[in-house]
Amino acid sequence: MNVSRTLVPDLVVLQAFECAARHGSFTQAATELNLTQSAVSRQIRSLESQLGVVLFERVRRRVVLSATGRSLLPSVLRLLAQSDELVQQAMASADGRSSLSLAALPTFSSRWLLPRLADFTARHPDIVVNIASHSEPFDLAEQDFDLAIHYGQPVWAQASCTYLCSEIILPVASPALSAAHPVTTVDDLAGTPLLHLATRPRQWLDWFDQNAGVGSVGYHGHRFDQFNMIIEAAIVGLGFALLPKYLIEGELASGQLQVVLDRPMTTENNYYLVSPEGKADFQPAKVFETWILSQVSQVNR
Fold it and tell me: Which of 168, 171, 197, 215 has the most neighbouring CB atoms within 10 Å?
């Protein structure tokens, strides 16, 4: 059922609601919005009247969201963000350039995609790329992304997945740590400091099992919740790390990290380019897909 447009709140009113909710004050919201306090109060009363609910409760000299207000706020924030994105895209396309919105994994973006993105923009100066970090699948249509880069299985609701590459993991360490703990066999890593990714707690254990090593040591060592943190910890010599080769291309080339054993492990998950339904013919997305596939093919040669 479509709601009459006359029942849809004005964006200006929603901005007043969001601002008052953030500050817990109509007065501070008025200052930020360059309005009077009474004007903000009228806008909030208008929204409450339109929706037939109470959005704020007065507590001493502050206003706090009611239960209904708290449940409404995330949707309002999303709507305002989408409106802001729409305006930015319109302004960006004013000079005839197209806009591509991409959701990508944070570490993948910073360590693999961004160093190569200059090549894409040089080849396609008519396309502006907007990148946002997302670590888990989400509703592409709701957040209006044109593409997403996903690590896992080729499954995403209301979207299609195109294989990009597998993940090759290698044991690495700083030169100083390698010198202090020489490693020539798998079992030489037993008793050495190991670095773990919290979201992949079995990774070292799986690597030891695959290489017929001392699996009982696979859980020992420091834990971090981001690959970036593990990379930095490995560089300063806190321990041996199992890292995807594509994330440490620069560190391997510069000598900050080195492979301690040429025993690569392929994970059960892969990287995919995800395209939402209904956008398969969007030309900037097709151009980006062709480009990124050519980039991963160069890496895998």
Answer: 171
- pTM score: 0.68
**C-alpha angle with apex 17: 11 to 21, nearest 5 degrees?**
145
Contacts for 223 with CB less than 8 Å, ≥ 6 apart: 195, 196, 197, 198, 201
Amino acid at 127: I
Per the structure block, which two tokens stand in for 184?
A: 């020539």
Residues β-bridged to residue 259: 172
Amino acid present at 63:
V
What is the per-residue pLDDT across 26-83, written as a single tens digit (0 to 9) for each?
Answer: 999 999 999 999 999 999 999 988 888 999 998 877 889 999 999 999 888 888 887 7
Q: What would the 3-class secondary structure string for the chain be?
A: CCCCHHHCCCHHHHHHHHHHHHHCCHHHHHHHHCCCHHHHHHHHHHHHHHHCCCCEEEECCEEEECHHHHHHHHHHHHHHHHHHHHHHHHHHHHHCCEEEEEEECHHHHHHHHHHHHHHHHHHCCCEEEEEEECCCCCCHHHHCCCEEEEEECCCCCCEEEEEEEEEEEEEEECHHHHHHCCCCCHHHHCCCCEEEECCCCCHHHHHHHHCCCCHHHCCCCEEECCHHHHHHHHHCCCCEEEEEHHHHHHHHHHCCCEECCCCCEEEEEEEEEEEECCCCCCHHHHHHHHHHHHHHHHHCC
How confident is the model over 85-121, as pLDDT tens digits? Answer: 666 666 555 554 688 999 998 889 999 999 999 999 9
**Residue range 238-254: average pLDDT?**
94
Predicted confidence (pLDDT) per residue in 10-31, tens digit: 888 899 999 999 999 999 999 9
Tokens 């392929």 map to which residue? 266
